[in-house]
Write a structure and sequence with these properties.
By secondary structure, this protein is an alpha/beta fold. It has 9 helices and 12 strands. The structure holds adenosine-5'-triphosphate (ATP) and magnesium ion.
Length: 269
Amino acid sequence: MIKVGIDAGGTLIKIAVMEKETTDYRKFPVSELKQAASWINGMKNAQICITGGKAALLASYLDTAPAEIVEFEASSSGVRYLLARNAMSQTEFVFTNVGTGTSIHHLENGGHRRVGGTGVGGGTIMGLSRLLTGITDYETIVSMAAKGMRDRIDLKVSHIYEGAEPPIPGDLTASNFGNLMSLHAEEQLSREDLLASVIGLVGETVATTSVLAAGQCGMSTIVFIGSSFIGNDLLKQVVERYTELRGAQARFLENGEYCGAIGALLSLA
Ligand SMILES: Nc1ncnc2c1ncn2[C@@H]1O[C@H](COP(=O)(O)OP(=O)(O)OP(=O)(O)O)[C@@H](O)[C@H]1O
Ligand SMILES: [Mg+2]
């Protein structure tokens, strides 16, 4: 018997397929929802569980009605599973899912609770990148951003406290995109620079919001998941550094973008 867990999100459909002892992962963009459905329909004798905002839509194209699970329950269970597999023993922590949007959850021994979120997330990376550079391909955005410099776009605390001792770390961003007003008319910004600052804005917002939420729960470990980290070392670096600057620790999980799909799969008997 094949077990299939599906997390159909706002941007990407993530699928985990378990056959005997091995688990394979696969993703489709939501724009290819029908192709994803045919691929799933091609698996005979499969037991399927589905979650995510596009679950009902995707289910309507499947040959047999799948089981369903609440998205946050699925992602929590997937996070626990991946943590255990990676020999990380945290039992109580906060996790932040940076998907199209961002949601933050507190996991305790007994259960989980959504503790916050922000509309700044992976969708913001895509939208602002398109607006500022015209680029719409995720991999291109991420690889170009890695080559950019943020200094002429973002205003740091040390820029404001020029020559004086700032009361908070000078390396913190005082204002994302706030340095643009002092840019000379003839100066050109590269697309790489703009993209690096977009990733900076999203990473710093996600980290700051998560640290504040974690503080309210008395937690200092934050596990970050979601497809926004795929191949995106720059976002990981920004999130890690900002989380640490604010006194907490960031953890990233390999295959973390599949937590929802894994949780859906695990809920099958
Ligand atoms: N191949 C890709 N195409 C588009 N976006 C990608 C791709 N790979 C990574 N991303 C990034 O991942 C984000 C989507 O993350 P994820 O798949 O976790 O969200 P989702 O589950 O679809 O959305 P939500 O959970 O908010 O409904 C995109 O906004 C983008 O920043
Ligand atoms: Mg999602």
